[in-house]
Amino acid sequence: MPGQSNNADQFGFKWSKWVPNKCNIFMWRAYLDRLPTKTALIRRNIHVENDVCVWCEEAEESIDHIITGCSVSAGVWHGISVWCRIPEIYVFSVKDVAALHEFCAAEGHKKSLLQGIFIIASWRLWRARNEKLFSGKNSTVADIVADVKTLAFLWYKHRFKGEIVEWERWRSFDVM
Ligand SMILES: [Zn+2]
Question: pTM score > 0.85 for this model?
Answer without folding.
Answer: yes
